[in-house]
User: Which sequence fits this backbone?
């Protein structure tokens, strides 16, 4: 399904501990229509819901929303701590094109721009 790099697992486990998240909580990952390329990633700390897929690695728990599994199949979750681009990063083999900021993508099976936001709207504003 998805993989979690060692660095991401360490960061995620630390974040969940700092938030005093329960033992069944994790990083809930989904994709929703929006962003400048058509699909945008949604990440939040939460619990698994019916139909979700749960992946654990190195004390980290990632919950993939059931309706997002196909668009996230084969993803790798990494963590970057660079000064200009820190946070969890998703490397998605299903993405045929990603926006410049890396928060949204298009898949190869859809016409370019099918779900993209209108010109002038910020990526992630939907």
Assistant:
């Amino acid at each position: 399904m998805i993989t979690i790099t060692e660095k991401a697992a360490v960061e995620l486990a630390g974040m969940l501990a700092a938030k005093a998240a329960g033992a069944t909580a994790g990083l809930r990952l989904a994709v929703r229509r929006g962003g400048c390329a058509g699909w945008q990633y949604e990440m939040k700390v939460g619990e698994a819901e019916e139909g979700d897929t749960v992946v654990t690695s190195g004390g980290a728990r990632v919950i993939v929303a059931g309706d997002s599994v196909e668009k996230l199949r084969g993803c790798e979750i990494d963590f970057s701590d660079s000064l200009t681009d820190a946070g969890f990063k998703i490397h998605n083999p299903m993405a045929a094109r990603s926006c410049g900021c890396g928060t949204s993508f298009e898949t190869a099976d859809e016409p370019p721009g099918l779900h993209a936001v209108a010109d002038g709207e910020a990526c992630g504003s939907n």
